[in-house]
Amino acid sequence: MDGFKRQPDSAVQLLRFLSLPPNRWDMASDQFWSVKFAALRYAVVWLGYAWMRAVTRLPFAWQLALGRGFGRLLWLVAPARRRVVARNLEACFPSLPAEERARISAKHFEALGASLIEMGMGWFGSPEKVRSLVRAEGGEHLTAALAKGRGVILFSAHFTTFEFFWPALAPMCTRLCGMYKEQRNPVMNRIMNKGRGRFYDTLFAKDSLREMLRNLRDNAVVWYASDQSYGGKSSALIPFFAEPAMTNTAISRIAKASGATVLPYFCRRLPDDTYVMNFGAPLPNLPSGDEVQDTRRLTEVLENYIRLCPEQYWWIHRRFKGRPAPLPDLYAAPRASV
């Protein structure tokens, strides 16, 4: 028939997808799953949502045990992600013995599994249960910043535990707002917005700077994580554990335009499976007018917190991607020996 292009059958599509190198799976999966498996993809996410809601009814210690077990399984079946974690740890902690980096990597995958439990509790679990497990440190910094009436930017980062803390954070805020990144799966977007929406007053897209400024003028608290690789116009090469990384520098400019106070805000799980939520003091002379220098200072604060719980930072993200030449691609597959 004219104008009709026959689609390859699903088995052929699957074989083509699996034959690609791992660094092309993200792009290819959009094409593959959107053609014949969209309904299956949505069904899997809905099943995950149902599982997440059901598991929150278990004792929390059982939940974490399940999550850590899943993380150990993930370590076994995801060699490409293991390699990303290994390269990140090698770049950031070159002086650590290889055995210690391997131990952190294994613990990181356990933390990734536990993060699914922590996400479920943060989104759909009992707020009272979450609050009973969380201790806040430095809350006086948040109180003092809100008293100024110009809004607060919580300079945060992607730790595996971050979704757990919304029930504990929201009551401390006048209004809690945050940016979100649109997911490829619309079902995931719906579930994420439903979960976070229990505690967020406003969620806005990550590029909606005007809405962020409008909320800060209303003395809102905005959770802002700018620690992942960023190649936009407000980016610069800034050392992350002494290794240059493309980094978003916009937080300094936003603080200057809004008059908001910037507070470091990080969270972690403790060895006894309770949690601590840390509000740091505002950094002196920030914003200074030098966006790069301000971001360097904030990055150093983040590095110090990562050292407290290195297994709980989001090492599966390719933090050093997108760097200009002549900096090497840390994630390139090693060449086969001739």
Oligomer state equals single chain
Backbone shape: globular
Q: DSSP strand (E) fraction?
A: 5-15%
The tally of structural domains comes to: 2
Walk me through this protein's architecture.
With 338 residues, the chain is an alpha/beta fold. It folds into two domains: 37-124, no CATH class; 133-312, no CATH class. Helices cover 49% and strands 14% of the residues. The chain is built from 13 helices and nine strands. It has helices spanning 10-19, 25-35, 38-55, 60-77, 79-92, 98-124, 127-133, 139-147, 166-169, 186-196, 209-217, 250-258, 291-308; strands at 134-137, 152-156, 176-180, 202-205, 221-225, 235-240, 243-248, 261-269, 275-279. The chain has a seven-stranded mixed beta sheet. It has a two-stranded antiparallel ribbon with strand order 6-7. Strand 3, helix 10 (186-196) and strand 4 form a beta-alpha-beta unit. Helix 3 (38-55) packs parallel to helix 10 and helix 5 (79-92) packs across helix 6 (98-124). 32% of the residues are buried. Mean pLDDT is 87; it is low at 1-36.
